[in-house]
Amino acid sequence: MSTDEWPLDSDGFPHREAGRCIVFNPRGEILLILGHDIDDPNYRWWFTPGGGTERGETQREAASRELGEETGLVVDPHRLVGPVLDRRSSFHFLRKTRKQDELFYLVTIDADEQARIDSRAHVMLTDQEKTLLVDMRWWDLDELAALARTGHYVFPDGLADMARGWLEGWDGELIIRIEE
After folding, report:
1. This model's pTM is above 0.70
2. Most CB within 10 Å of its CB: which of 42, 72, 97, 127?
3. What confidence tens digit (pLDDT) does each residue in 53-109 have?
């Protein structure tokens, strides 16, 4: 990973801004990607589509672009609702402690858009993403909550509970989470 993608902050940590999408299908299921650290293949986690901003790009634009790259579904950034969650996290990945400031946006898709995602025909992963991203699937919120309770990593923490509220419609409240 380049220092352009993960610039060093004033404390010397690779630190970036990112945009993420919480994607609901017509059944109210949420789309998650399973990733792993190539330096520790046993460490796996489920997370929402999204990634780091590029030069001159907003976090909303990054969320939309990354959704297209990772799932093949291109949506206009203005279609994304929110941000609904502002998450600041520190984590160990690729042999370094990294920091990421993420804004999460909601998008509900129709059956045709879900079929496009499920086909995986238009996914445009980087070579590195091809080695890091293991699977992608739709999760029922009860199944997702049960998964998290059994010790599997799901990021952000408490996603199933937050998603239940957002599924009914966003109330305009920005949730702020700091996860060290």
Report:
1. yes
2. 72
3. 999 999 999 999 999 999 999 999 999 999 999 998 766 665 666 677 899 999 999
Q: For residue 131, give the 3-state DSSP assignment.
A: helix
Residue linked to tokens 């739709």: 138
CA 131 to CA 37: how far, in whole Å?
9
Beta strands in the chain (DSSP E): 15-24, 30-37, 40-47, 50-52, 81-93, 96-108, 133-139, 153-155, 175-179
Compute the half-sphere exposure of residue 136: CA atoms within 13 Å on the CB side of its CA. Answer: 20
Before 83, cis peptide (omega within 30)? yes
List helix spans (H) across the chain: 59-71, 111-119, 127-132, 141-149, 159-167
The residue whose two tokens read 């199933």 is: 160
